[in-house]
Structures are given as structure tokens and as C-alpha cells.
Amino acid sequence: MDSRDLAFTGAAAHARMLAAGDITAPDLLELYLDRIGRLDPTLRSYRVVLVDAARQEAGIAQDRLNAGERLPLLGVPIAIKDDVDVAGEVTTYGTAAHGPARATDAEVVRRLRDAGAVIIGKTTVPEMMLWSFTETVTFGATRNPWNTDYTPGGSSGGSGAAVAAGLVPMALGSDGMGSIRIPSTWCGVFGLKPQRDRVPLAPHDDAWNGLSVNGPIARTVEDAALFLDVTSDESGFVEAAGREPGRLRIALSTRVPAGVVTRVGRAQRAAVDEAATVLRGLGHEVVIRDPDYPQSAIPHALARYFRGVYDDVQTLPHPQRLEARSRSFARLGGLISEQQMRRIRAAESVVAERVNVIFDDVDVVLTPGTATGPSRIGAYQRRGAVPTLALVAGRVPFQAMFNVTGQPAAVVPWDRDNSGVPTSIQLVGRPFDEATLLSLSAQLERTRPWRDRRPPVS
């Protein structure tokens, strides 16, 4: 296998190759460090590459492999989104307002290390994880490897771009309003928003008032399942990804929740229509049916989002260094009192029950991954908080609802639009049912493989 093929192989396959002695951990790391050095000056997917620490970790991992030790990710490089703590490094949240280096790893990073992962670096984010584009005054713009005129998405934009361009086999993302699923869509990789509380957030528990979760951006479904096996308190996700899903009843919906003004683009609608044809060919029953989205659901999500950003800003030692748009956003969040937030949180179960009535009759809901393609780099540079939010919301209306309900949702790579940027389909599962999503996604992956698709910047 040549080095470029190896770069796109995926984390689970790398773990098997390392255990078999087909490659060494230091050689695998150096392959990625070389690619980062050549390609990331264009993409800017990494905020920092931990060269020395990663080399030391890879050497230790190889010693353990040589001694016969076997761990699920022993020697596999993993990138960490820059809203998650890595010991000895700052967590910038994409801003110059950040504090000092963290003394300890976040719990999810600790679990990845316990599984043998080599932490290669921290990936770029928009300031305070606010947007579906990854551009900041402090760290610049991250570009989409499929078309560098466009954003890779956000807020896990650096993680999505790095995995798509073969600069790491898998990356940690977080998803509070679609921030795993959006960049996974526009970068053409597999992304999974797990069930709320499936993957630990500590020490940042209940981020964005319960909207946010940690999860994987990966080259393959098996990679994402392996991530869940090593980071959650449950197991059996890899096993689920390897099972046939059986005959499922799937609801296809292109309805946009009330409160978002947009139209689903031709390429995005084609993706779900083609997916329905493929799924029927695989033996599934596909029906046209919309979830019952309450009128209050998007305002409910926005209130938790705004107040969550306000709460995050209160923890910063230098809030005066924030960009003006972020300060405005946080000020609006401060208008939502703690008492109001308690009432909003108490109403979540009513919203979730109404949305999830559809699962009395179907197993999975199928939607477009996004309504349109991504924005061009610099498109929102001179816009304020509310105008920016109104514009970006129209591109990504299918995500936030399932952060409110907390249930799992995955995006499966599909095709490309006229700009050469990938499209996807979103699969939404019952609460706590990642297993069905993984099984169905893996079946689609076998039918329409995407692992070896490589963007121009790769």
C-alpha cells in the first residue's frame, strides 16, 4: 500500500495493521506529519500540531505493540477539536480571549489515550463554536479541501477538513447545533452525533444547556463505531456496524422546521431521492412522512444556544478580546435569565415526545444533510450576529432539532454539487439507538463506498 492510500485507510484498519506489524506507529505518525506540513498551509485545519509530544507517544505505543500489548487504538493518530481540553495545551475556542494551558485532559481525551490513541493536534473552530463556517480574526480561515473557495463548515470545521484531506484518520468533534454533521457533510466524510451523554463532556458538562455532545468525524462507519466503543460507557457499537440492519421502515422528509426560511437545493434533494431508491433496492420500505416539528422548537433551540454562548463567555479571562459579533451574540444570550432557562429546559420533554411520535411507525428518519452547499470564504466578514445567524440557518435547517431532542443522528456521504462540494443524507434514529444508524450506514457504505474518495487538496 502506498503512503497516500494508507492516509485514507481509516482508524480501525490502521489499528489492525499496527497490531499485525504491517506498519509501525512512528511511521504512521510521520506519514501524517508530512502530509500536514505539505497540505495544511493551504487548508489551515489544525490550530496546533503537537509534533514532539505525538512523536513521543507514537514511540511509546510502538514499544507496547512490540511487547504484545493490544488496545483498540494503540498507535493510531487522532485529532482533537479545539473546544476540548488536552493537558499542557490551551483550549482556545477559536478566540484570543482564551485562558492558560489546561492541566488535565478532558475525559473523552483521557479515554482515547487509554485506548492507545496518539494525539496529533488540535483542530480549528469558529470563535466560541458559533458558526457553520470556520473563520476567525485570530486564526484565519479554514478551507474546504474539495473546493478551497468554500468553508468546510463548522464548528468542527478543522476536524472535518483534516479527515477529508487525509491529514488524520479520525477526529473528535462536538455538535451543539449540527457541528459534527455540517462539516462531515461538506467534507464528504462520515459524522455521527451520538445520543446526549453517550460520550462524556467533562469537565464541560451540560454544554450549551444540554444541546452539545462529543462525537466522531471519521473515514468509515467502523471507525465511528470504534470511537463510541472506547469513549462511552456502553459497548457493542463495532458489532452493530458489522450487522445487517434487517428490513427497516424509513421516513423520507425534506420538510424544514418552522422558523427557518430556506429552500432545499437541487443537489441536496437529489441525494435523498437517490438514497430512497438505493434503500428500497436494499429491501427497506421508504415512505414519505414528516416529523411533527412544533412551532416552538427552533426558538427553544436558539434560546439554549444563545444562553450557552453567554455562559461560556463568562468563563473567559479576556472577554474584551472577542470579535464584536461574538460579543453581541453573548449579550443577547445574557438577556435570557436562569429562571427562563429552567422553564425552557423543562419543556424539552414535550418537544421530544412530539417529534418522536414518528418512531411509533418508522425505524429511521431520512433528511437531506444540509439544505444547500457551504458559504464562500469571507462571505460573512462584515455582518453582525443576528444577520449572520439568519443567513447560515437557511443552509443547515435539519440539525438543531435533534440537539434539542438529544437523539442520535448521522450523516452519510453521497455525491457532489456543481461546485464540487460533497452532499450527504442525514439518518435520525430513535433515542439511544445508534446501533441501527451504524448498521444502516454501514450497509450504505458497502453499497456506495466513500472511503477512497479524495479531494483535490489531498
Describe the structure.
The protein is of the alpha/beta class and 458 residues long. It has a single domain, classed as Amidase signature (AS) domain (Amidase signature (AS) enzymes). It is 39% helix and 14% strand. It contains 17 helices and 13 strands. It has helices at 3-7, 11-20, 25-43, 51-66, 107-114, 157-164, 181-187, 221-231, 237-241, 266-281, 297-314, 324-334, 338-346, 348-355, 385-393, 400-405, 434-447; strands spanning 46-49, 77-81, 118-123, 135-136, 140-141, 170-175, 190-193, 213-218, 249-252, 285-288, 364-368, 409-416, 422-429. The chain has an eleven-stranded mixed beta sheet with strand order 1-3-2-6-8-7-12-13-11-9-10, sandwiched between helices. A two-stranded antiparallel sheet has the order 4-5. A hairpin with a 5-residue loop joins β12 and β13 (422-429). The radius of gyration is 20 Å and the shape is globular. The two termini are 17 Å apart. The model has no long low-confidence stretch (mean pLDDT 97).
